[in-house]
Amino acid sequence: MTDNKKQPLLYMEEYRTKQDPQDYGLADEVFNMDVFKSKLQVVIVRNDEEHGLEFDLIGVYPAIANAFRRLMLSEVPSMAIEKVYIYNNTSIIQDEVLAHRMGLLPLRADPRLFAYRTEESTEQGTEQDTLEYELKVKCTRRKDANKDQSNFDDIYKNHKVYSGHLKWLPKGKQAQIYSENSVNCIHEDILIAQLRPGHELDLRLIAVKGIGKDHAKFSPVATAYYRLLPQINLTRDVTGKDAYLLQSCFSPGVIGIDENECAYVKDARYDSCSRNVYRYPHLADAVTMARVRDHYIFNVESVGALKPEVIFLEAVRVLKKKCRSFIDEIESE
């Protein structure tokens, strides 16, 4: 980690942010590749299925950090249902609403194994750029249902349509390459519609490769955001009841209290920087709050088709490709 004295800080006062007097910000900084490479750090903090990926990106300009965030949201591709052919829909859901719901179903298919559709592509697509599904569900009344029963599961059959009802229809040699589990919906318990006897759905679905810039359904992340690393320092001792009051002003786990009932900074990383401490004049001078200007805490949660770390690496590849294309355009001039 970088020494605290050298960290560029943004101080958080009650009603404004103030720049460190020794930090001149980005205005006078001239970009130098060697300096950039010496400062750049990527630190993996946490990576699990429950919380997703959390990593620190240190020593970069805000534009670079924001570029990675935007690329993960809108330019890393995924597979999603694009066309819905409705042969029969007697449910109470309108056709266009039903088609929209189908498009938002997350698919497990790996987009790296498929090609983008081109203007020359046929409507039905090929095994290289298209996945095809069907949804056929008809609601009926159970013959053994009693009149006194009130539970719909006991009265009706197929009265709830879930994403697990989708059936994959392999095209060409897809059945030899992919398994049904590798291309179906990530979650099988997503409720699509509720039916009653006489209601029926008969749909054919076409999934293609796309990016979130075209439609949000193609975005591979549930959330992708960053925040600056908080830094909290106590300027004097805070003890007794004031220590517990100070602790309540910050997010849980940020301020600790020792055996002498003296407050100390336990872990400033996960503080929300709410500035609640400024509500108490007798505590306002006991704390200095700041954020490190070039230390970004990234949180990435995947929809499920790609792992969060893969999504970030794909965003790096997209940015690299854009830079190469830009350089080629300049050189061609």
Characterize the structure shown.
The protein starts with 8 loop residues before the first strand and ends with a helix. Strands 1, 2, 3, 4, 13 and 16 form a six-stranded antiparallel β-sheet that branches. Helix 2 packs across helix 8 (308-332). By secondary structure, the protein is α+β, with helices and mostly antiparallel strands. The protein folds into two domains: 7-75 and 223-235 and 286-299, Gyrase A, domain 2 (2-Layer Sandwich); 78-218, RNA Polymerase Alpha Subunit, Chain A, domain 2 (Beta Complex), CATH 2.170.120. It has eight helices and 16 strands. InterPro entries: DNA-dir_RNA_pol_insert, DNA-dir_RNA_pol_RpoA/D/Rpb3, RBP11-like, RNAP_Rpo3/Rpb3/RPAC1, RNAPI/III_AC40, RNApol_insert_sf, Rpo3/RPB3_RNA_Pol_subunit. Keywords: DNA-directed RNA polymerase, Nucleus, Transcription. Belongs to the archaeal Rpo3/eukaryotic RPB3 RNA polymerase subunit family. One of its GO terms (cellular component) is RNA polymerase I complex. This is DNA-directed RNA polymerases I and III subunit RPAC1.
Summarize this entry quickly.
InterPro entries: DNA-dir_RNA_pol_insert (IPR011262), DNA-dir_RNA_pol_RpoA/D/Rpb3 (IPR011263), RBP11-like (IPR036603), RNAP_Rpo3/Rpb3/RPAC1 (IPR022842), RNAPI/III_AC40 (IPR033901), RNApol_insert_sf (IPR036643), Rpo3/RPB3_RNA_Pol_subunit (IPR050518). By secondary structure, the protein is α+β, with helices and mostly antiparallel strands. It has helices at 33-39, 62-74, 95-103, 152-155, 174-177, 240-248, 281-284, 308-332, and strands spanning 9-12, 17-19, 41-48, 52-58, 78-89, 131-138, 140-141, 156-157, 160-162, 167-169, 191-194, 200-210, 221-234, 255-257, 263-265, 287-302.
